Prior knowledge:
Chain A has 438 residues and is mainly alpha-helical. Chain A is 73% helix and 6% strand.
Amino acid sequence: MDNLLAARSTMAITLGFHIIFACIGMTMPFLMVVSHWIWIRKKNRIYLDLTKTWSKGVAIFFAIGAVSGTALSFELGLLWPGFMKYAGPIIGMPFSWEGTAFFVEAICIGLFLYGWNKLNPYIHWVSGLLVGISGVLSGIFVVTANAWMNAPAGFDWMNGQASNIRPFDAMFNPAWVSETLHMTIAAFEATSFAVAGLHAILLLRKHNFEIHKKALIIALSFGSIFAVLQPLSGDHSAKDVAKRQPEKLAAMEGLFESERNAGLTIGGIPDVKNEVTRLGVKIPRLLSFLAYGDFDAEVKGLNEFPEENWPPVLPVHFAFQIMVACGFFLAAAGIIFWLLKWKWKEYLFHKRFLYLAAVCTPLGFLAVEAGWTVTETGRQPWIIYNIMKTADSVTPVPGQIFHLSVFLLIYLILTVVAVWLMKRQIKALNDSQEKAGV
Amino acid sequence: MLYVVIIFLLVSVYLYCLLGGADFGAGIIELFSHKSNKEKIKKIVSNAMAPIWEANHMWVIITVVILFMAFPGIYTQISISLYIPLILLLIGIVLRGTAFTFRHYDAVQDHAQVVYSRIFAVSSLLVSFFFGLIIGAIVSGKITTTPVDFFDGYLHPWINLFSVSTGIFICSLFAFIASVYLVSETTEKETRLLLVKKAKTATAVMVISGGMVFVFSSIEGVDFASRFLRHPASITAILLATIALPFLWNILNKGLIWPSRILAGIQLFFILAAFYFIYYPEVIILKEGSNISLYNAAAPAATLTQLGWALIVGSFIIFPALFYLFKVFKAERHPE
């Protein structure tokens, strides 16, 4: 494996690992806040147990997120010094705000996790809420920096040097709204469905405790709203990509030749050599409409661009298909949940619906990973779109394969241990619920 | 605005050494405690760190953000030349934080606790060591922008006696701060005495390894001892830090908790100040004889203005919140 590919893989696994914990950190506080609020107001013991149970999971995940996030802040420079040398001063602004937000998050999580019996209940509750708010702000700031890589702004680029730096314009670059919106919703959606799914699995396994039912309702009530909103945000993002990064859209769709009245390809296998996508289902004219709001619009194919600037078509196309499929599945599950809640309450804990919720457990996170694959791989070969190539920014330090292997191993072990710890937590919870006889 | 940013950079480094350092030092204390005391120390360390370690750890992130935004030349050169020790540092940071949390939050208390504790303690030592080693390497004058081979570019800057001795020095410094700080986390007289003893051992190691830093700098041809002697402010700072030691023992023995904590913080301040007076505004001393400094590597004015304001506004949010966090969890415990 050459140095560049190894460095890219290291970045991919670090980001792919961190994003899961970041999503959990952004979402769980809101679920806990709801449960905590009900406990404070109604004094129903189950909600206290639920808040504490969730908070233990959050403590474990937040720690992994915090340290893997630290690793990321160093790795940007370790892996891509050529990029950071220019990008730091231009796009540092959101990072500097992210520093504050992350700090507040770390302080408030300490207050929330260890503040039981020490803080006034309402101050305690607010500390939990602040964890969520600062977590979401952190996420938005970081994604803003990524948006800048896709839509660089706020500087003049001449002879390989940046000048006339305008940090404000860089932060509020043309892509920041669509990317941060899509990601924030995705974080809420993925985490809520994963939580709901876990509790559904426990209910299916005959741990028929009230706490799991309450958890399922809170998580799905929250997650389903965002699952339904996500396709709208996705549409917004797609239009954005069509306008600014047409070759990325072409790779997502596996579209090689430019077309008027372009059809939307669902599935299919792009054959890059022969420049054709086979076996897909094509819905006539829909792509033109989705990308430009006009059934007759021309959608640019990859052939409009020099081949050395094509993103890797296969992974981008597949990742996009996976993301969209997961997204629509979750949106449908969300609608079913609202229907049941509204009309057929008695079926909410029916086996079939619990199976559906269980199936949804990994789908949100699968979509998040696939979505990031689309964004990042779809931007290649550029690290700053149309300005700097990834290959030109990689570290000169040889032996990147070792860095990759070590971090892959560490993150694998951490994943296994985190799952194992969750299992032990869940067992302890079920045992305590059994004892309490609820 | 450059000076505002520099002040925040120095404050962040200081607070990371003080607060983060105390947490890493706690792990070192645990590592070097006798089997018969281990459980006791473990409990004190766990309770002391749990609510605050993540906040304490944030100072390194603030430091990194200031570096890459305001002084990109420093950040990228360190990232390239000290790639390997930085990776080792990161591995330590990841393992320390996760092992500590897993130990605290595992639902079942079984053999796994031993494993978590081991990893936590050893990685605390590793992080402190590599942190100190990296600081030493940055000023060692062995970093080069035009390496002739792998050894010259990526190994020699940090594999040398000078950098290793700064690594050991930082370990003992962190252990010293931690033991002074942990004394008040227990109300048991016996354990307090034990921690005071640890503080004294750490001081002894600190003095010896501090001497080693000077000796090895001459052996390795690092322009450190001679620079030190040329700066009266640095000499004064080190003298003050040393003179403060007997006072510290005195008030520690009397059980005056906050005065001893504050005095240890002041001693750390003097040590870092001595370092600052030697090098400011230079940061990376290059093999080529030139240097990368806070002035010649500074980002354009627009960036510095924005960062300066972000830091000022941010500090109005962070400091009160941090103060509240410490007030809630670090109220003094009186001895029995």
